[in-house]
């Protein structure tokens, strides 16, 4: 049987995974909760670089890889492109469009952690929605700042940081309540795109708060790309019926 390997971890990937029959594989990096309602196999953990992924594709008779990883998981996307080229396996990708600034937005782009630190230097109560990266810098928080960090897994904070483990989607009411409770005066965000976590940007716009936006990494081309999970899922269902 010609099998599918779905590379995921995002809500887009999960929506596709729920349509996969038992013979196919949904692969997670291991940072989030493993869904319990899937018919397909679930694999957790890395492959061991490009060579390990090539071996997996060959050993498991994978005929199609669908890259539905996070837009900032650039290394995994590069590895998938290289491994599929070597193994002569078709690669599809879900490339979620980036958010675009709207009238009233105050976005301040930066490419790395150093730039983030520089851009929040004049603020007191930043909200970080970058995932795990800020957790490595808890000991560096300036005395005049208190950080609120939202990520997928629980982690102890300290006297100058609160950690919120939460997974979207987030709505306007909930985001407004968070901004009020934590007295947020600046947001630090990845440009993830999609609707699940977009409400924070609307609240920032309402309140005239700046958003320090981490620019997206460049991603490799795929043999076929989709803007959303629905289009990818429908194309995949057609592919499965023709094999």
Task: Describe the 3D structure.
With 243 residues, the protein is of the alpha/beta class. It has two domains: 3-97 and 217-242, NAD(P)-binding Rossmann-like Domain (Rossmann fold, 3-Layer(aba) Sandwich), CATH 3.40.50; 107-214, Rossmann fold. The protein has seven helices and twelve strands. It has helices at residues 11-17, 49-59, 74-87, 113-119, 172-182, 199-207, 229-242, and strands at 3-7, 25-28, 41-44, 62-67, 90-94, 107-110, 126-129, 147-151, 161-165, 186-190, 211-214, 224-226. The strands form two sheets. It has a six-stranded parallel sheet with strand order 3-2-1-4-5-12, with helices on both faces. The chain has a six-stranded parallel sheet with strand order 6-11-10-7-8-9, sandwiched between helices. It is elongated. Pfam families: CbiJ (PF02571). GO terms for molecular function: precorrin-6A reductase activity.
């Amino acid at each position: 049987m010609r099998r599918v390997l779905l590379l995921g971890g995002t809500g887009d990937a999960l929506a596709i995974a729920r349509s996969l029959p038992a013979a196919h594989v949904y692969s997670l990096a291991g940072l989030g909760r493993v869904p319990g309602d899937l018919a397909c196999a679930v694999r957790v953990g890395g492959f061991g670089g490009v060579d390990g992924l090539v071996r997996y594709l060959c050993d498991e008779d994978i005929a199609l890889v669908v890259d539905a990883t996070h837009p900032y998981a650039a290394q995994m996307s590069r590895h998938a492109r290289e491994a599929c080229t070597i193994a002569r396996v078709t690669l599809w990708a879900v490339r979620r469009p980036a958010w675009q600034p709207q009238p009233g937005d105050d976005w301040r782009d930066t490419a790395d952690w150093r730039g983030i630190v520089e851009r929040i230097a004049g603020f007191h109560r930043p909200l970080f929605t970058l995932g795990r990266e800020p957790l490595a810098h808890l000991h560096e928080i300036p005395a005049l700042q208190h950080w609120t960090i939202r990520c997928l897994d629980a982690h102890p904070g300290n006297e100058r940081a609160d950690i919120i483990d939460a997974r979207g989607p987030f709505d306007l009411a909930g985001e407004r309540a968070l901004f009020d409770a934590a007295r947020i005066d600046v947001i630090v965000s990845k440009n993830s795109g999609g609707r699940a976590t977009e409400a924070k940007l609307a609240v920032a716009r309402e309140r005239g708060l700046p958003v320090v936006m981490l620019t997206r990494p460049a991603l490799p081309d795929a043999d076929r790309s989709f803007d959303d999970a629905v289009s990818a899922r429908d194309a995949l269902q057609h592919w499965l019926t023709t094999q």
